[in-house]
Amino acid sequence: MELKLIRSVFKPDCTLGKMFLNDAFYAFTCEDTVRNLMPDGSGKIKNRTAIDYGRYEVVLSFSNHFQKYLPLLLNVKFFEGIRIHGGNTAADSEGCILVGAESDMQTKIWNCASKVANLVATLKGIEKKEKMFITITHE
């Protein structure tokens, strides 16, 4: 299973893009600001920095914070607990990837709950059969 996040709008306070599931458009995304992190992680602003570009394994696990199962990205350098979940603006992110059905492609996304629930259901049906990954890139 391959998820792909293509970042396309870079604002001082947020990053917007689109998520694809096996190459088909799935949802709009909202993240914190992309910063050029140094090899030692300097340049990161806690809870206001998007994770680096790259490919990450994804697993489903229970989130104590959200009290439900959500996708978790593994081995994200300089970050812990990076999940895919709902939220409307980068203020809801803390480094995580937010997904929603609609976006203004300027500052926010919305109609998130159904996208998150559907993604979790889809991944539950796949997780025992194959590994799941997300690749983060830009246009």
UniProtKB/TrEMBL annotation:
Q: Which residues form the DUF5675 domain?
A: 5-124
Q: Which domain of life is it from?
A: Bacteria
Q: Which InterPro entries did the record assign?
A: DUF5675
- What is the official name of this protein in its record? DUF5675 domain-containing protein
Record organism: Mucilaginibacter agri
